Amino acid sequence: MTSTVSIDTARLPLLLNDLRLPTIARLWPDFAARADKEGWPAARLLTTLAELEMAERAQRRIQRHLQEARLPPGKTLEAFDFAAVPTVSKAHVLALAAGDSWLEKGSNLLAFGPPGSGKSHLAAALGYALVDNGYRVLFTRTIDLVQRLQVARQDLGLASAIEKLDKYDLLILDDFSYVHKNQAETSVLFELIAARYERRSLFITANAAFGAWDQVFPDKAMTVAAIDRLVHHAVIFEMNVESYRRRTAIARTRPNGDTIVPTDAVAPATIIQDA
What we know:
Distance between the termini: 72 Å
Largest sheet: 6 strands, mixed
Strand content: 5-15%
Mean pLDDT: 87
């Protein structure tokens, strides 16, 4: 005995909304009319609508991740002046922007240089690119995150707070060396570094090189241990160039617009090999 299924096409918009398929709900009338006119097979129509739904879903997800990433506006790879920072290889940065293996391994990125050398811009630019490629990123001033983690520890929730940060494939800690142990009990930073070691990636920007990090952690042993974990699997950018903001200010004051060419370039970005 064959049963007959009653089809009420007027209910289709409601069904699609219940199934949470807003793109198909919006586009199906036009594509159905086109399919009828051009004689599409049913499978082609269904595949087209499904692909459009998936594409828009991906775009909505990227927009949500961009909002939660808190990246500074306008700091993209397209806006980064690689010519002004000859120590940073554009090809190398574009390769890192793809994500892939280094994020899967929990490798770190470290950028050192004076204020205005482009460290924060580079970190943010990579953040934008990674979000576009489907990864989750959080950009934060290090001191702000330290304060949040301190509150969590006082509430006996430090482990939970650090675990919640695991959802981010890359955690960007900007202005790392502005944190001082006499301003805050920064052992929470070490706990964060230790928890993410070989699991989730960090991008740290700092004005001061490792030699000055004893001003960040409570004791020398913790400083050494933190540095050891950070550099074990790391890419280091040495950005010891003249301040971009200073060059821009000087260029505005010169009639011909010439800028100063930096003379203190250092070795290219270095990949720290596994021990």
